[in-house]
């Protein structure tokens, strides 16, 4: 261990709007320097960059060049901030939002860089939901055929995932589909850029690519969806690399980008949420980590295999080798709060917030936290971005009930916060009802900064919350994986114990508020179950899509 005192690793987290790099000491996980690079193109939702080509409803794309820029800008800057000699860095690890996937040539060139005027040639971000019709067909055909992998995903495949997105491309732009020699998760593509060697990780393949028991869905099943879809798994790569493994060595080109030594270890790619478990030292059975940001992803290792309705998936070795890894999630959380502030809060609230030295979010929170539970008379469904778990329907939409002429913005803001906590409670209760106990609820992500929101979650869940001890959970987790890939630790569990950070019982429920929230939660469940079939909400979306086509 003494040798690790003078050794360092880099973790790079590719998020929705930016990428961040952190320099971490191998011996104890100390974060010595970090840097963030905002994507130039951000989320591409309205039109293709530099063109007049408009995108349809529920589209969300990204630019590969933005990802390369993170390596060129954020990594050298983090190293400079840390004041660490590059020669002392022994490895680099990365993580990505998922499912973010792109079509490429056989040597990894993104089709968007060859055909920038074709929308389907661009990488589809995780929150691209325009493939819902394809997802619906995948689910219907799989259920009719009794495909054995379907229960491993809670009974439904998401429109966010690989097969639905690729099927959409096949059916809407077959020329682009045929031009793709590879379909690859951005988590694996960025590792390809770093090493010059193509690799595929077990995490994204399992959770987003329907890879179970050593295989993808059969060509027979895929042909039932579309005869031209058979053979799609051949573009996904067959040899899956274990998490914490060595994907390759830093290439000469990537060394120039990052200003790191050529030949250092590059760890196998991973998903931002799943890698955060190591950063929180929460890699043991029953430790559910909720990574709360624009959306929330719930991941949990377990030694039990069960069928949990509406889960995003259960994958062997999907979080740490040797355990089953469960995933669930909420498609929008922070995005809901941002949407409300951007579209529904009067301008004078911004003026008041500025006078108080606060952001609008902070000001609304300060007003909302003064209320007694239920004083606003509202209950909301947290479906503004659809429902990932447990209904797995991205054509659902948000609902707010109880508004009157006396309802104020802070009332709605609090009701929206509470709605996301109620959604989290549905997930926890569903897991436990299926026989997968949640022993500890650990919170990570940007929303951890809002202590009022955290207390609401503790009260609604009626359980203590543990808190990760890092503001850069995914980047720290990637650094921990890099340390394992570089040989500094025997495995992820050992590295997480040395380098991860977690505060237990950071928030404790108040019994009086918890009792009051039980009443509101009962109303949420009634509303949830009433709209769960999607009838009205689907009809409204269809009317919208026709009107904006």
TrEMBL record:
One GO CC annotation: cytoplasm
Signal peptide (UniProt feature, chain positions): none
Superkingdom to which the source organism belongs: Bacteria
Enzyme Commission numbers on file: 2.7.1.16
Pathway(s) where this gene product acts: Carbohydrate degradation; L-arabinose degradation via L-ribulose; D-xylulose 5-phosphate from L-arabinose (bacterial route): step 2/3
Keywords: Arabinose catabolism, ATP-binding, Carbohydrate metabolism, Kinase, Nucleotide-binding, Transferase
Keyword Transferase carried by entry: yes
Molecular-function GO term, any one: D-ribulokinase activity
SUPFAM superfamilies: Actin-like ATPase domain
Catalyzed reactions per annotation: L-ribulose + ATP = L-ribulose 5-phosphate + ADP + H(+)
The Carbohydrate kinase FGGY C-terminal domain, residue ranges: 289-486
Biological process annotations from GO: L-arabinose catabolic process to D-xylulose 5-phosphate
Family in the record: Belongs to the ribulokinase family.
Protein name (record): Ribulokinase
Lineage: Bacteria, Bacillati, Actinomycetota, Actinomycetes, Streptosporangiales
């Amino acid at each position: 261990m003494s040798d690790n005192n003078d050794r360092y690793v880099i973790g790079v987290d590719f998020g929705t709007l930016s990428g961040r790099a952190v320099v971490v000491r191998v011996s104890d996980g100390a974060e010595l320097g970090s840097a963030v690079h905002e994507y130039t193109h951000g989320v591409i939702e309205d039109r293709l960059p530099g063109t007049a080509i408009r995108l349809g409803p529920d589209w969300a794309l990204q630019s590969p060049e933005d990802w390369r820029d993170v390596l060129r800008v954020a990594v050298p800057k983090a190293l400079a901030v840390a004041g660490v000699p590059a020669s002392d860095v022994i490895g680099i690890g990365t993580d990505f939002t998922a499912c973010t996937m792109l079509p490429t040539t056989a040597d990894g060139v993104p089709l968007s860089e060859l055909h920038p005027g074709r929308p389907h040639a661009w990488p589809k971000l995780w929150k691209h939901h325009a493939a819902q019709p394809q997802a619906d067909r995948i689910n219907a055909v799989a259920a009719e055929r009794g495909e054995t992998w379907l229960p491993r995903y809670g009974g439904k495949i998401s429109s966010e995932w690989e097969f639905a997105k690729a099927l959409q491309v096949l059916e809407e732009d077959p020329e682009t589909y045929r031009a793709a020699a590879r379909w690859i998760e951005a988590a694996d593509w960025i590792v390809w850029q770093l090493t010059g060697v193509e690799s595929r990780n077990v995490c994204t393949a399992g959770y987003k690519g329907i890879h179970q028991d050593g295989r993808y869905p059969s060509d027979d099943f895929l042909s039932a969806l579309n005869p031209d879809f058979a053979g799609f798994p051949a573009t996904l790569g067959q040899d899956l690399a274990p998490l914490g493994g060595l994907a390759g060595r830093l290439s000469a080109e990537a060394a120039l980008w990052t200003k790191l030594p050529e030949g250092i270890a590059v760890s196998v790619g991973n998903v931002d949420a799943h890698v955060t478990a190591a950063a929180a030292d929460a890699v043991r059975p029953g430790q559910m980590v909720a990574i709360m940001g624009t959306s929330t992803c719930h991941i949990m290792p377990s030694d039990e295999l069960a069928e949990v309705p509406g889960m995003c998936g259960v994958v062997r070795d999907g979080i740490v080798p040797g355990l089953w890894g469960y995933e669930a999630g909420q498609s929008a959380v922070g995005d809901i709060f941002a949407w409300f502030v951007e579209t529904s809060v009067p301008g004078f609230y911004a003026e008041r917030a500025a006078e108080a030295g606060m952001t609008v979010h902070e000001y609304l929170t300060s007003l909302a936290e003064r209320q007694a539970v239920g004083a606003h008379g509202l209950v909301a469904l947290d479906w503004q971005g659809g429902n990932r778990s447990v209904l797995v329907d991205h054509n659902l939409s948000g609902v707010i009930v109880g508004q009157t002429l006396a309802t104020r913005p802070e009332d709605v803001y609090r009701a929206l916060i509470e709605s996301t906590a109620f959604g989290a409670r549905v997930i926890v209760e569903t897991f436990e009802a299926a026989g997968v106990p949640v022993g500890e609820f650990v919170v990570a992500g940007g929303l951890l900064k809002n202590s009022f929101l955290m207390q609401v979650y503790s009260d609604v869940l009626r359980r203590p919350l543990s808190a990760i001890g890092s503001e850069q959970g995914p980047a720290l987790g990637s650094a921990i994986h890099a340390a394992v890939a570089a040989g500094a630790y025997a495995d992820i569990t050992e590295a997480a114990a040395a380098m991860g950070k977690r505060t237990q019982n950071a928030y404790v429920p108040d019994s009086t508020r918890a009792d009051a929230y039980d009443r509101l939660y009962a109303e949420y469940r009634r509303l949830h179950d009433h709209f769960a079939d999607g009838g009205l909400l689907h009809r409204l979306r269809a009317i919208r899509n026709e009107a904006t086509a």
